[in-house]
Amino acid sequence: MSITLTTWSLEQTSPSDLRPATPPEGDDLTIRRAEVPSAEFSRFLYTAVGGDIRWADRLSLTYKQWQEIVEKPGAEIWVAYDRGTPAGYVELDPQDDGVVEIVYFGLIPAFRGRRIGGHLLSYAVARAWDLADRWPEREATKRVWLHTCSLDGPHAMANYERRGFRLFDTKVEETEETETPGPWPGALV
């Protein structure tokens, strides 16, 4: 069956564009960088967060391809933990000319609706802006961008806009509807 897929591309062009969210109440949430490049951990986060919203573009990648992604100089994965359990993550991809793409961002379904997403996104965008502080060979960040689509969660676009992202492109296309892959093949979400 064919569906209409809308993809929106958004950007910030200055650190002052970021409008941080208020952190959720309580002190049980921490955000840490996954400093050891791990294809297994990256794939776990990808499938746990995106399994119910049809993230499938990386499922066919080999172990070596996953490892190359996480070992790319300047690439970072930031993980939100609720009392030690991964709740969601953000993957930053450094590109040429001071550009950083937020390639993946989201929460594991059980952690959605708890005000974690705005805080995690705010934290990650700040880390995109100061990426060159941790990677001195990198040019200072001049632009942070991302894309979201009509298959993402219902609050995704509003969260990006509230954090100060501005729309710069919209694409509409017909595509084949795929099954929800779940966090592993055949899983019910």
From TrEMBL:
Gene3D superfamilies registered for this protein in UniProt: 3.40.630.30
Region (Disordered): 1-29
InterPro entries tied to this protein: Acyl_CoA_acyltransferase, GNAT_dom
Listed name of the protein: GNAT family N-acetyltransferase
Domain N-acetyltransferase, first and last residues per copy: 29-189
PROSITE patterns membership: GNAT
Polar residues composition-biased segments: 1-16
Transmembrane regions: none
SUPFAM superfamilies documented for this protein: Acyl-CoA N-acyltransferases (Nat) (SSF55729)
